[in-house]
Amino acid sequence: MSRKLEIQGSAQFMLCPCCGTTIVRGASDCHCGGRFVGEPLDQTPITIQRFGPALASVASLMLVVTACLIATKWLAFAVVLVIWSARRAVRLAKNAPDWYGGYKTATATLAVTVVGGAALAGYGIAYIPKALDNYRLRHIAATRAAIYHEAGRLEEYKRIFGSYPQEFKKAIGEALPSDYWGTGIKYESKPGDIAERDPKSTGLPLTHFELRSAGPDGIMGTDDDVIMRDGVFITNAELKQQGAAQQLR
């Protein structure tokens, strides 16, 4: 048995792929009828370089750039993942060049990502104030829409009864809604000049109204109040100017 194994393990012999019989290496055929058409394949392992990490970093960079252009600029911060992917590809290609290829591609991707990522991040940071302002304006627009709705109900009430109501909830049957920031919208009506006359001391019809939201700070009387007077939006600063002008008359 040991002699047979020694013969089979010798470089001068090989096994027939058809019947498994030990035959001399280089023989043209076997007694089983099998014929050889070439030398046996070399058993040395073949190393194939993998380009997956390098290509993945390139694909992720393209994906982030496309998403920023199509969807939202805030995805620019995802460039951090691209940098991590490119660094990983560079490290693998450098430490195991026989197994991982694309070192130059990964290095170029990393360089482009770092430069482009810094630019995108800078743009994103510079865009933050504008984004916050747009966020605030959307909230103001939502509050104005609610005030517009209530003003329409007041106009309908005046069309029927000839005057605005003194108390909104009692006349309309519902309380005024809250603004976007959760503070209740306030209502006031007056006859004649809304800034000078008091409906409690006169019997004149209520021909003017004011709807006011406290704005983002939740405090009435500050400059961020959202105010509608007689169907027209006006700022608190403009009201102060009008009051100062009336005092000078």
Could you give a short description of this structure?
This protein is α+β, with helices and mostly antiparallel strands and 249 residues long. The protein has helices at 2-8, 52-70, 79-95, 103-161, 168-172, 236-248, and strands at residues 13-15, 22-24, 186-190, 208-213, 226-229, 232-234.
Walk me through what this model shows.
The structure is a single chain. This protein is α+β, with helices and mostly antiparallel strands and 249 residues long. 48% of the residues lie in helices and 10% in strands. The chain has 6 helices and 6 strands, in the order αββααααββββα. The protein has helices spanning 2-8, 52-70, 79-95, 103-161, 168-172, 236-248, and strands at residues 13-15, 22-24, 186-190, 208-213, 226-229, 232-234. Strands 3-4-5-6 form a 4-stranded antiparallel beta sheet. A two-stranded antiparallel ribbon has the order 1-2. Helix 2 packs antiparallel against helix 3 (79-95), helix 2 (52-70) runs parallel beside helix 4 (103-161) and helix 3 runs antiparallel to helix 4 (103-161). The longest helix has 59 residues, at 103-161. It is rod-shaped and about 125 Å long. Residues 1-10 have low confidence and may be disordered.
